[in-house]
Design goal:
heterodimer, A: 1639 residues, alpha+beta, seven-stranded antiparallel beta sheet, 50 helices, 40 strands, disordered N terminus, B: 204 residues, mainly beta, five-stranded antiparallel beta sheet, four-stranded antiparallel beta sheet, 1 helix, 10 strands, disordered C terminus
Chain lengths: 1639, 204
């Protein structure tokens, strides 16, 4: 604690003691008390107090002296009450007594304070008050978060309040004790303070309290005694005493009554007149006034109110307290507590922004038994009206808005209008100039400047006067200089002003003259304007004198100026001259030196002639010529000033002129006037972009003025953003045009109705108007001159005179939205906003937003977009940066202006999106589970059927994505591993991509449903069905010969692995090749006796029954069995015997769909084939010793591959069943076998059989259960075909389908880009490769076969496989050749085109064949017969070939027409192919629909590249290597030896096979082989296939089962030959053989 | 992994197809089946069922009561594709042909406990008046290719239906490990060990 304070306290205590001891002490104390009153300060006695304390202490003696005059008064007062008996004591209760005392005390205090204040006025305050309160302010802001201290105080207060007596005493004591000691216990006022005011920490309090308590104990008696004597002051004393005595007496009487009541019975009722009572009450009660306390009362004497916020300090907003309450409080404080500590420097009660404490100070009551529910009970709250667009609205917290804006539109004046005549233009100009003149005249700047100049001159004069100056000389000189420069400035300004004035006057006169001449010229007057020039006489002499004096003064000044300048120049000159001189001297000395030097070294001079520039000799400045100057000054004066003696001209514009009446005007002018009359003007008032009202339509006057005089009272609810007037002009009865928009500023809040000045707001329009009368139009050039020069372009413009103000309510309160009140912090807001308003007629949105102090939340989205503007505004409006409310805004601005953060220029649509993101995007993307779910929902093939996605990320293996990622990565990487040939790899990749895109399209298409997809509904029965069903009723229930009924089809939805089986019923085979004995010593069980030479005859073409006559009967020629393999499951039949075996066995193979997906689309894309291989079972006797033959059988079973039939699963799937006889694909060379006809056995069939070559097998294949094949995607692709044609195709197809629903009829197909194309466009003669044509030039049949073979070598790839969803895409022939893959249609189209180019008559046959199902073949007409070509195999058949796979013919398609088969039969055997007969073939284009000559989609010509032979050879080597490795892989348990010798022999043989296309080489080959490999038992065969990729080759080799031989000493031979055809078409030959060495 | 927590949650539903209100028809039976997403798998119970034929009660309610039990348990990793029960009601028409009387579907309740559901039923309409007549005459009313269609939203825009009757179902649902996998299906899920802590802002 401060020692000084300590001292002060000691003093106080001394006084206290004095009190006790002596009566004198009390006297002293009173005096002190009085003094204290004077110096009463705020109770907040913090450490700061100490500082302010010092002067007090120092001043102490002084007030003591002053006390002397007050002493007698207080002495007397003291004596009085003391002599009185103790107040009520006897009769009244303690409480009554107390309250009485209380009242007394209050009253006394009031009286005292009054006296106090009067005293105060006499005594000057010892120190400025400001300082203290500034400190206090600081404290105030510091206040806030000290709940602990607060709580402490509460406690303290609690115990203090518990003793009311003490309190009372304390309050009295406060009066008595010395000021530095703060009151130990708060009074009522302090209690109030406590709640409304912030306390400073009071360190001395704790020490003070015990002291006070001490005193309580010791001096209670005494003090109480003291209390009794109220320290009343002089004037009030008497009546106070009287009153008390009166009451006292009464009380006494009452007390007496009490005893007397027993015997005194009757007594008149006590009456107290109202007046008396009022009087009494008036005396007893204190009613604070409601009137506003004048500021000076609240402030110390001679102190001006001080507004801290003006000084830049932040002042928080005050709590909202009604004015009256505030007044009452102030009044009360003034009377009760005479000190002014409750008033701030600005004369208002000090207040905190928010009187509510953030935390409850009451300790929480923990009520355990109370239920939670009770606290969480719902409370009814009245519904609050929802406020839209609160940003621009008077918020709900504000007083309910009923605000009014008065807009007074008084009139409109056009400064230019299209209907202006030339005279009007001039008149407008004149009026404008006159206005300008008037404005200038009013300001009279020239006069002002002249006066100023005069004053300055005088000042200079006095300044130069030495005796008058008190200041030091140099300062005078300085001021004089300043004056002089100012004189110069002022003079210049004045001259300019004067010149302007003169110019203006001149212009006015000029315009007026022009106007006069115009009036004269046009002989009529349009405007009443009249200019009168009034001359004001001037005193010639005085004027001249003044003029002259002025000039003289000016000249002298100028001279002075010039002198100064000259002086300066001279100075400079001298300096320069000195320099020059010095240089010269030096130069001379140098030269001298040089001369000597030159004499010695003459050439040296050239080296450095002049090392530095010669300084020019300075020219002395010329002295100023007075005469010249005078001349200049005079000239200027003449130009800008009135000549002396010239009369002063005052123009006066009046409307006194008369306008020529219509009758005297020319026609054009009359027209113009009429036009003007037809026009009328009205204004729309637009508030916040909404039309709120409009004025009446007023006609345009002849003077182009419109008077409205209307006042609009806008009851507004929204804060005004913009206020616009739109000027509309109506011409006659035609439409109105918007002339212009006038933006009105929103008035300041101070502008209320009645005070608003009428303002003129200019507007202009950019419309262009040309009129056909005198009117000059608008935006059009016109001229006053006769020759049309000096053109003017004037735009419609004018002024609206209006005034906008806030209305005043009934009670005189302006109806202004409370923005102004809320924005006390932004006091300067309004001016700046009005600046904005003037700028664009619109309050910036953020301004409204700032209404709410929270910048970010209220500005929100719109305001943030333009931070720069915001910052600018903030700077302009001098936003209080200290206000914590503005902190976010300031921060934002600082960020924005410092450029630290990036302010986006873009507009964000969902700026709140971020708040709804529960994880960041990256995190979301990182989630494997999310990714998996996304991919599945996108139906990515790998994940389409992913089941049970794990619940956690961690359970998802990374490898799940690997395949997918790899696929994505490899999309553009061409992998050559699987595809040895790079071109094929590319094609495969391309196909893959096409497939993907098509699949994606179909996946989308799959989600389009038709009614039939969802609902099964019986078709409307037609007569035939109805009849049939009627017939059915009569049907036998159990027919004797049951018909085969269709099996129930199963939708492929709820199927799983193992549910589906493929049933293969193998019935019989024909013409299986038979074994034959060779000339070797082969140990064959069937010892064929055929000789080698006979083999030649074995070929079917040369076959004759005589050849086989010598075969022994009963000999087993072949023991064939059939092995069916499907999806690597293998089943085989029992072994039959003979070349025409009959098995009649059913084999069951399970079917597994890929990925367990049994959906239709998945099943369609199953690429697996069913291989039906025919083997010959060969038994070898391995018995070493003949002697054991009787006792045991030792045989080895070997199987020799004879041939195969390959049926794709997709065929089975779509056909549902395959039933028929198929040609077995037998290798062209089958060593050890021959196709021999043993006529003995099969004589009966011979005649039939001989028609065709090859072996056949009869099969029946189906699936169990039957699956519903996926339907063709019904898609209507867009087309470039003629709409009529498309309609015709639909009609044609509908007709055909009606007649023969099962016959295929194609008119339009889909090309590879997904467009519908008419089918005939695909057929066009196309050139086959030249190479093929040259091969056999003389044999057209051979050429045709070669071409067919070429076509068949292009790999077959069904569309259904490549394009799941069965959409038949037709590629053109060049695309087909580029892709090197396609299905029947592409092959057939290409073949047909080749045939067409070969000059054949060829058609495309659409029909169905075995095993393909619906397919396309090619039909050619030879000389006499028709040939049917299978484009995929290259084979051809005669029309009547029973083994022709084509079983039905739907339609024929030629290059220019389509013929639909309307014959009864559709088998090629039984139909007539003559398309010219309309009864048999219905043609598409007929007489009714002529062939329009459709262009082809095919290219003009096919271009064939020669295939690179080297690449082919390389590929050949690689394939061979890979196959060899594969065979070794397939034999993991055995050693695989390769017979090189044999391999090379085979390799030589393969080209021969290619050349002969697999015919007629067998015998030579066999002989050769035998020659070379005499000791080996040899079985092997060449495989031939088109090359597409490696996998089918491997599959083919595998299916032959060559590797299955496990004889220990077996050797293998494998040779590959690739024959390249043009366009990379490769024919692959693989020769595989096993060799077993004979022993 | 098992120690870390469950990787699937289980949904066990039992209950019954209680009764139906088909004011115009009598002698009806119903079939039910479930439609669920890819992440769901039935672990126990019957996935489909066909009920007995029931006749209308003789009282004023005219209820068709089946009381046909449902008892099935699913496991899943993902609430997406929550199982739906699909009901189809059949009965004879005037000629004695079995025709469909209503289709309907509802999701199994999410929250554990006892739930009663009343499903409005509907049938597809014939495409034309003539077909309506013939279908009535022939006893071959239009039907959905697959009753499961009614549990999916795709492709429904091509159909027109007429509503007829209601079926009331009762479910008792038990879930396991839903909470542990982070799916809170409602207040009646008693899995939570402790209730949520009292709100911090509330005065005590």
């Amino acid at each position: 604690m401060n020692p000084k304070e300590e001292k002060v306290k000691i003093i106080t205590e001394e006084f206290d003691e004095n009190d006790e001891d002596t009566g004198v002490g009390s006297q002293k104390k009173t005096s002190k008390m009085a003094r204290q009153k004077r110096k009463k300060r705020l109770p907040a006695a913090g450490p700061e107090e100490m500082v302010s304390e010092n002067p007090h202490l120092g001043n102490q003696p002084e007030p003591l002296q002053e006390d002397s005059d007050t002493r007698p008064l207080s002495m007397t007062t003291r004596r009085g009450p003391r002599s009185l008996p103790p107040i009520p004591s006897a009769s009244r209760t303690g409480f009554a007594e107390f309250s009485m005392r209380e009242r007394m005390r209050e009253k006394l205090q009031a009286a005292r304070s009054k006296a106090e204040s009067t005293l105060l006025q006499e005594i000057p305050t010892p120190r400025p008050r400001r300082f203290q309160s500034a400190g206090e302010k600081e404290l105030e802001t510091e206040f806030g978060a000290e709940p602990g201290e607060e709580a402490q105080k509460t406690e303290q207060e609690d115990d203090s309040q518990s003793r009311s007596r003490v309190k009372f005493r304390d309050s009295v004591r406060k009066i008595k004790t010395k000021p530095p000691v703060p009151p130990g216990f708060p009074s009522a006022e302090e209690a109030y303070n406590f709640f409304t005011f912030n306390f400073d920490p009071e360190p001395e309090e704790s020490e003070e309290k015990p002291k006070a308590k001490n005193r309580d104990g010791t001096t209670q008696e005494e003090e109480e005694g003291e209390e009794e004597e109220p320290p009343v002051q002089g004037i009030h004393k008497t009546d106070e005493q009287l009153l008390i005595s009166a009451t006292e007496a009464e009380a006494f009487l009452w007390g007496l009554d009490h005893t007397a009541a027993d015997f005194v019975a009757v007594r008149p009722a006590d009456y107290e007149s109202a007046h008396v009572r009022l009087q009494m009450e008036k005396e007893l009660l204190f009613v604070p006034s409601r009137l506003t306390v004048p500021t000076y009362k609240k402030l110390p004497e001679n102190v001006q109110p001080r507004y801290l916020e003006d000084e830049g300090l932040y002042i928080g907003t005050r709590p909202d307290v009604p004015r009256t309450c505030q007044n009452i409080m102030e009044n009360r404080l003034l009377t009760q507590e005479p000190g002014r500590r409750w008033f701030g420097d600005d004369g208002r009660i000090v207040a905190l922004p928010n009187p509510i404490k953030p935390f409850p100070s009451r300790p929480p009551v923990l009520t355990q038994e109370q239920d939670f529910r009770a606290e969480l009970e719902t409370l009814y709250k009245k519904a609050v009206k929802y406020v839209h667009r609160s940003q621009h609205m008077i918020g709900s917290g504000d007083s309910p808005g009923n605000f009014q804006l008065d807009i007074d539109i008084s009139g409109l004046i056009f400064t230019h209008h299209p209907c202006f005549s030339r005279e009007h233009v001039l008149a407008a100009k004149l009026a404008q100039l006159y206005d300008q003149y008037l404005a200038r005249h009013q300001r009279n700047k020239a006069k002002f400047l002249t006066d100023k100049l005069q004053a300055l001159r005088n000042a200079v004069q006095t300044g130069l006067n030495p005796e008058k100056t008190h200041k030091s000389l140099d300062t005078t000189q300085k001021t004089i200089n300043e004056y002089k420069s100012e004189i110069r400035q002022t003079r210049k300004l004045r001259d300019a002003e004067q010149e302007k004035d003169r110019m203006l006057l001149k212009t006015i006169i000029k315009v007026w003259k022009e106007m006069k001449s115009l009036r004269e010229f046009q002989r009529f007057t349009n405007t009443p304007l009249k200019l009168v020039l009034r001359k004001e006489k001037v005193d010639q002499k005085a004027d001249e004198e003044a003029y002259e004096a002025e000039i003289q003064a000016e000249i002298s000044e100028l001279l002075e100026e010039h002198m100064e300048e000259h002086e300066q120049k001279m100075e400079a000159y001298r300096a320069a001259y000195q320099q020059w001189k010095a240089w010269k001297k030096a130069q001379r000395a140098k030269k001298k030196k040089k001369k000597q030097a030159v004499e010695e070294h003459p050439e040296e001079e050239m080296g450095e002639p002049y090392p530095e520039e010669d300084p020019v000799k300075p020219v002395p400045p010329e002295p100023t010529d007075r005469a010249l100057m005078e001349h200049q000054v005079r000239e200027r004066a003449a130009r800008s000033r009135r000549r002396p003696g010239e009369p002063l001209l005052v123009p006066e514009l009046s409307l006194a002129g008369s306008v020529t009446p219509n009758e005297q005007c020319p026609r054009v002018e009359v027209l113009r006037r009429e036009d003007v009359k037809r026009r009328s003007i009205y204004l729309k008032v637009i508030f916040n972009d909404k039309e709120v009202s409009r004025t009446d339509s007023r006609p345009l006057g002849a003077d182009f003025r419109v008077h409205f005089g209307q006042i609009f009272n806008l009851q507004i609810f929204n804060w005004p953003e913009s206020l616009t007037l739109q000027v509309y002009e109506t011409v006659g009865h035609s439409g109105t045009t918007l002339l212009a928009e006038v933006f009105l500023p929103i008035p300041e809040t101070t502008i209320v109705t009645g005070r608003a000045p009428i303002e003129e707001v200019e507007f202009s329009s950019n419309q262009h108007v040309t009129l056909d009368h005198e009117g000059v139009g608008s935006g059009m050039p016109f001229s006053f001159e006769a020759d049309g020069s000096n053109q003017l372009i004037l735009m419609t413009s004018g002024k609206v005179s209006n005034s906008v103000a806030w209305a005043i309510g009934e009670n005189g309160i302006p109806l202004i939205p409370p923005l102004s009140q809320q924005n006390i912090g932004f006091r300067s807001t309004t001016p700046s906003s009005s600046v904005h308003v003037v700028a664009n007629g619109r309050i910036p949105p953020f301004l409204c937003a700032l209404k709410r102090a929270d910048a970010i939340s209220s500005i929100g989205t719109s305001g943030l977009t333009d931070l720069k503007k915001l910052a600018k505004w903030a700077a302009e409006s001098k936003l209080d940066p200290n206000d914590p409310n503005n902190a976010p805004l300031m921060q934002l601005i600082s960020v924005a202006t410092s450029g630290e953060s990036y302010v986006p220029d873009f507009f964000r649509l969902e700026q709140l999106q971020q708040e709804f993101n529960f994880v960041s995007d990256e995190e979301l993307n990182r989630s494997k589970r999310f990714r998996l779910l996304c991919l599945r929902s996108q139906e990515v093939p790998e994940f389409r059927n992913y089941k049970q996605i794990p619940a956690y990320d961690r359970e998802i293996m990374e490898k799940v994505f690997q395949d997918y990622e790899k696929r994505l990565r490899d999309r553009n990487v061409i992998e050559t591993k699987d595809h040895i040939d790079p071109h094929r790899a590319m094609v495969a990749k391309y196909l893959q991509q096409v497939r993907e895109s098509v699949i994606n399209r179909f996946l989308i298409a799959k989600h389009h449903f038709l009614l039939s997809d969802l609902i099964v509904e019986e078709e409307v029965p037609n007569i035939s069905i109805l009849g049939l069903s009627l017939f059915k009723l009569a049907e036998q229930k159990r027919p004797l010969r049951p018909r085969r009924k269709g099996r129930k089809k199963v939708t492929a939805q709820n199927l799983s692995d193992g549910d589906i089986k493929v049933l293969v019923n193998i019935i019989r085979a024909y013409d299986i090749p038979v074994r034959k004995a060779t000339a070797s010593k082969f140990q064959q069980p069937s010892r064929s006796s055929r000789t080698f030479s006979e083999k030649h005859a074995a070929s079917p073409t040369t076959h004759s029954p005589t050849h086989s006559a010598d075969y022994p009967l009963g000999q087993v020629l072949v023991r064939p069995f059939v092995e069916v393999s499907f999806q690597r499951t293998i089943c085989h039949t029992t072994t039959a015997e003979g070349p025409n075996p009959s098995w009649n066995e059913e084999l069951e193979l399970p079917f597994r769909a890929p990925n367990g997906d049994y959906s239709t689309s998945s099943l369609q894309s199953v690429k697996d084939d069913v291989f039906i291989n025919i083997f010959d079972e060969v038994l070898y006797d391995v018995l070493e010793d003949d002697r054991e033959r009787g006792s045991g059988i030792h045989t080895r079973i070997e199987r020799h591959w004879l041939g195969c039939v390959k049926i794709p699963f997709s065929t089975i799937y779509f056909q549902a069943k395959i039933d028929g006889t198929f040609k077995i694909d037998i290798p062209p060379v089958l060593l050890g076998y021959s196709k021999e006809r043993s006529m003995i056995i099969e004589r009966g069939f011979d005649s039939v059989r001989s028609l065709s070559e090859g072996s056949y097998i009869t099969l029946f294949i189906t699936m169990e259960p039957q699956l519903v094949p996926g339907e063709l995607v019904r898609e209507k692709f867009d087309s470039q075909e003629d709409e009529k044609l498309l309609q015709a195709t639909e009609k044609f197809q509908a007709e055909c389908a009606l007649k023969f629903p099962h016959r295929q009829c194609l008119t339009t197909v889909t090309d590879i880009s997904g467009k519908t194309v008419f089918i005939t466009r695909y057929l066009k003669p196309l050139n086959p490769p030249q190479e093929l044509l040259e091969a056999c030039p003389n044999n057209p049949q051979a050429t045709a076969e070669l071409v067919a073979r070429y076509v068949s070598l292009i790999p077959f790839l069904p569309d259904t496989v490549s394009f799941a969803g069965i959409c038949d895409l037709w590629s053109t022939s060049d695309q087909f050749l580029d892709l090197l893959a396609g299905d029947e249609e592409e092959h057939a189209v290409l073949l047909c085109n080749y045939f067409l180019s070969l000059g054949k008559k060829a058609w495309l046959v659409m029909g169905s064949a075995i095993p393909e199902g619906p397919t396309a073949y090619v039909l050619t007409r030879e000389q006499s017969h028709y040939l049917i070509w299978n484009p995929c195999s290259g084979h051809f058949y005669g029309q009547f070939d029973t083994f022709c796979p084509l079983k039905s013919v739907g339609c024929l398609i030629g290059p220019d027409n389509i013929w639909f088969n309307i014959q009864r039969h559709d088998s090629p055997l039984r139909i007539n192919f003559d398309v010219t007969k309309p009864k048999l073939w219905k043609s598409f284009f007929s007489r009714s629909l002529l062939y329009p000559g459709l262009s082809s989609v095919q290219p003009e010509e096919l271009i064939y590249q020669r295939t690179d032979k080297a690449a082919a050879a390389e590929l050949q080597d690689r394939i061979e290597k890979i196959l060899k490795e594969k065979i070794m892989d397939w034999r993991p348990r055995h050693l695989t030896r390769w017979n090189r010798y044999c391999t090379s022999a085979l390799r030589h043989f393969l080209p021969l096979l290619e050349r002969s296309r697999g015919e007629d080489v067998e015998d030579d080959h066999r002989g050769e082989l035998l020659k070379q490999l005499g000791d080996y038992r040899f079985s092997g065969f060449p495989l031939h296939m088109p090359y597409s990729e490696l996998k089918p080759l491997i599959e083919a080799v595998y299916s032959t089962g060559v590797h299955n031989i496990d004889v220990p000493n077996v050797e293998f031979a494998l040779a590959v030959y690739i024959h390249p055809y043009p366009k990379n078409v490769l024919s692959v030959w693989i020769y595989v053989a096993s060799l077993i060495r004979n022993r | 992994m098992a120690a870390a927590g469950p990787s699937v949650f289980l949904l066990m539903v039992n209950g019954q197809v209680e009764s139906a209100q088909f004011p115009e028809y009598d002698d009806l039976y119903c079939k039910y089946c479930f439609v669920y997403g890819q992440d769901w798998a039935p672990t126990a119970g019957l996935e489909e069922g066909i009920s007995q034929i029931t006749s209308k009660s003789r009282d004023v309610r005219q209820a068709l009561v089946w009381n046909f039990p449902i008892d099935v348990t699913f496991k899943s990793t993902n609430p997406y594709g929550w199982p739906q029960i699909v009901l189809s009601v059949y009965g004879p028409d005037v000629f004695g042909n079995d025709v469909v009387r209503g289709y309907g579907a509802v999701h199994l309740p999410f929250s554990p406990g006892r739930h009663k559901r009343t499903i409005p039923m509907f049938v597809p309409e014939s495409t034309s008046k003539l077909q309506k007549f013939t279908s009535w005459f022939m006893g071959r009313r239009p039907e959905y290719t697959d009753p499961k269609v009614v549990a999916q939203g795709e492709g429904r825009e091509v159909t027109r239906v007429r509503s007829q009757g209601f079926v009331t179902l009762l479910f008792n649902v038990v879930t396991k490990d839903m909470r542990k996998l982070g799916y809170d299906t409602g207040p009646s899920d008693t899995q939570g060990v402790s209730g949520p802590s009292p709100l911090p802002g509330l005065p005590l």
